[in-house]
Amino acid sequence: MSPNKKIAVIPGDGIGKEVIPQAVKVIETTKAPVDLTYFDWGADRYLKDGTTVPPDGFEMLARDFDAILVGAFGDPRVPSNIHAKEILLGMRFKMDLYANVRPVRLLDASLCPLKGMEPKDIDFVVIRENTEGPYVDRGSIAQKGTEDEVAIQEDVNTYKGVRRIMRYAFEYCARNKKADGTPRSRVLMCDKSNAMTYAGGLWQRVFKELGAEYPQIKSEHLYVDALCAQMVRDPREFDVVVTNNMFGDIITDLAAGLQGGLGMAASGNIHPGRTSMFEPVHGSAPPLAGKNVANPMGAILTAAMMLRHLGFEEESRKIEAAVLEAVRQRNITHDIGGTLGTSEVGEWIAERVSVANS
Ligand code: NAD
Ligand code: IPM
Ligand code: MN
User: Fold this and answer.
1) pLDDT per residue over 301-350, tens digit each?
2) What does the alpha-carbon distance between residue 118 and residue 214 come to, in Å, rounded to a whole number?
């Protein structure tokens, strides 16, 4: 058997099918020793034969692959979104990928909608809990269709779940540096414990408990509403942010805005020691699909994150440097002020990586 790392590639729907080929092209240009296997999971397959995830699909991914690279799921022809739930949330929940790591890094001042922000000012990471919260989809509807209808969506928070995501955040802080080499030093927990007292109480207690184990790291707290205001007013103070599943989803779209938009944001869905999944933060953007206009940089930076996770640090750095250079030389798509198409940006970055290789 080849010693190469095995990567499952699931482009999915919409612009996922356009940005993932660019990410793959860049991975291949690095010559990292990886074998790629494609899966057609997504709306087309679901509409054709009713399959969302084939039987034993998650077991197969965990057994046969070292990592999974995903595009996006979501298609107007599947209004229930059932395939996205079963495939994407299926991977996160059934493979127990509890840490959703979403770096927020400004590559160039020109990309930030805030005045006067430089790359050194915006370099933080959101660690989003990925297996609990309202996403467990537990609840009930009573008196459906009447004026007395009541819909209950349960927000599940377990001691073990909260503790492990906070542990991940403190460890991440202890072990990682910012892009300019300064050590990370602060973990900020974001909740809504002033209104949601059961869940908030647990998050507060566990955060105190774990903070005490890391005296060298400063523990901070903001309510999620105040955090949103702070993020657009002055994001310079953020370092490592840990939060629950739902707030993490919302604040990382906001944070994507700081980086230039959803097209720039990368993420990993991680369970240390297990097959983990990497995907850009953005969705399938149906209005952009099929037009060669989607920004592939989020997907390409996601590929760099995945390669780093697999131990290919040098390859990962080359990709990040090439993306940075593409931004600086304005070889970029329309969403961030450029004129190039999806594949032209991918091609430029791949070319740059290949020059760095030679
Ligand atoms: P979206 O992220 O697809 O798009 C939001 C906005 O950002 C749109 O204006 C879009 O044009 C823009 N955008 C997103 N990615 C871009 C890129 N690469 N380049 C340039 N512009 C980009 O979110 P949405 O519109 O709320 O959702 C569309 C579909 O995607 C829905 O079905 C949703 O459920 C799904 N979705 C999937 C994922 C995922 O698979 N991880 C994430 C978010 C949304
Ligand atoms: C994301 C997406 C998903 C989420 C949707 C598609 C279920 O918005 O990955 O950020 O809410 O987690
Ligand atoms: Mn989201």
Assistant:
1) 999 999 999 999 999 999 999 999 999 999 999 999 999 999 999 999 99
2) 30
User: Distance, CA 267 to ligand 2 centroid (Å)?
Assistant: 11
156: helix, strand or coil = strand
pLDDT computed for residue 38 by the predictor = 98
Catalytic residue among 44, 108, 155, 253: 253
Domain with residue 292: its CATH number is: 3.40.718.10
Pairwise CA distance, residues 286 & 219, whole Å: 40
- Which residue's CA lies nearest to atom 9 of ligand 2? 281
Total-model pTM: 0.98
- Asked if 289 and 179 sit in the same domain, the reply is no
Q: What share of the chain is helix, strand, coil (3-state, %, to 5)?
A: 45, 20, 35
Q: Would you state the torsion angle of the CA atoms of residues 192, 198, 204, 205, taken in this order, to the nearest 10 degrees?
A: 180
Single out the residue in 240, 258, 276 at which a domain terminates.
258
Instruction: Assign 22 to helix, strand or coil.
Output: helix
